[in-house]
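So, could you explain this one?
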Amino acid sequence: MTIVTPVQHPDLDVLLDQLSQALEDSLLSIVLYGSAARGDYEKRTSDINLIVVVAQLTPRVLEQMSPALLRWESRGQPLPRLFTARTIADSVDVFPIEFLELQACRQVLVGSDPFANIQVNTAHLRLQCERELREKLMRLCEGYVETWERPRRLRRLLIDSYSTFVSLFRGCLWLQDDEVPTRSNDVVRRFCEVASLDPEPFTVVEEMKHGERGNTDERKVFTCFFDALTLALQRVDRFDVLSRGDSE
């Protein structure tokens, strides 16, 4: 089975080798997604996100994967998402944003491409966009309650939230545009154009993520960020849905 490693990371090489040896013919694919696949990867702040597709997802297969995955997690990386071909097909209507992201930008590291023929229904996409924007905004409020008096934790909340909302903005753009940018800063800029929003609150948090804003009033940044997100949710409610030839 061919193994490709486009991201320079020694632990990734080890993981691919260990999973290939442990699973043998049960391993169908390993797919890289997220910032590392888009070209946004930064060693200091980014994770390496992977999907592992196996023939059958059984307790025995999980046991076989466990040593490699636990080693990977101990290196500070998130555990891969685990799928079979069947669970991929059954999950498209539940996670349309994630599957559209995978369609737009992924790198197959091992095996065949399990997402090549996925079709996403835009009705499901609109529902997920609105639901998750509201939910993540509520989570952001809860996080602020816990961190507003602790600048370092509040900064971390802002940085972590940024990537989450960029992903949702990308999903919202798929409701509106056929061509959606790949890189996060381009997604934010395009979303703000479509939604008639000032991009500055998002740009400030992005710069914090890149370590470019050392002396910052985190509470003031949060207020502007939160207000912009609240307005974004109102604007998304008025987005038109493009017809993509989907059917119920």
In short: Residues 1-5, 242-248 have pLDDT under 50 and may be disordered.
